[in-house]
Amino acid sequence: MLMPRIYEGSKFGLSIEIFPPKTEQGDELLYKALDRLRAYRPGFVSCTYGAGGTTSKRTVEICRNIQEQMRLTATAHFTCVGSTRQELVDWLTYARENGIQNIMALRGDPPQGQTSFQAVEGGLRNANELVTLIRSTFPDTGIGVAGYPERHPESPDADSDLRYLKAKVDAGADAVFTQLFYVNEHFLRFRDRCAAAGLTVPVVPGIMPITEFARMKRITSLCGSEFPGSLASRLEAVQTDAEAQFEIGVEHAIQQCQELRAEGVPGIHFYVLNKSQACERILESLGFQPEAAEFQLA
Questions:
Q1: Which residue in 8, 17, 154, 263 is the catalytic one?
Q2: What is the pLDDT of residues 165-184, one digit of tens each?
Q3: 17 tagged catalytic
Q4: Domain regions of the chain by residue span
Q5: Buried (b) or exposed (e) across 133-166, using 16+ Cβ within 10 A?
Q6: What CA dihedral angle connects 64, 51, 126 and 270, to 10 degrees?
Q7: What is the fold, at CATH topology level, of the domain defined by 11-285?
Q8: Is it the case that residue 83 has pLDDT exceeding 50?
């Protein structure tokens, strides 16, 4: 299913993001998690790149398995990092040959050891150019792009960040998926600013349930997301109790998602970190009922 159809009419678009495991055991755990989550009928599952695009081919292979073995729509992440224009076209062709019709178009983070993004000679400078390339190479592709409720760390201000986002949408993006956030007001203000700027594509909130406080502190410090003080205090009080951290984190995510649905969001994009338990709890709290699986993994 192409990305725009997932949000047609009054449909609520559920999507899930995973990353390529590094070991065979990781693969096994990932597919077990996806086997449980597919029962909630996600509109698509997206798979990220490794740092610097190091897993770009593996990302396509995982997406192909998701579509062929699990009968779910897959979306492959795609970045500009370290690639010439022709290499990007070659990757797009490879992805299409493997049945991938939806792409998450991202500039990508600077390679390790670099402090700022630098396009290679003959490469692209930003996600706007990448969306343009995808749309011109395979016009029927579903294209998602990233949005930042608390602005991208490299953006000088929120207005500039919104102009960058609008350029991506004007180039042909079908939907915006936000960076994780833990304060709903940031997303709601961002959504309203997008509408005021003339963006008519779905703006989908990205939710990462807190299952491990130390890990989440690292992630939020890197992406610049506010971590509510009251929530941090509760988690710090149980930082030696993994189960308590999980319960507090899931409770907060449930509250976030219930409020967001009441605000009429078009869907929710879950960053599940290749695990299913937290997402299952949240979905059931929202009234999603799992269906019996019809297919078995090969």
A1: 17
A2: 999 999 999 999 999 999 99
A3: yes
A4: 11-285
A5: bbbeebeebbbbbbbbbbbbeebeebeebbebbb
A6: 60
A7: TIM Barrel (3.20.20)
A8: yes
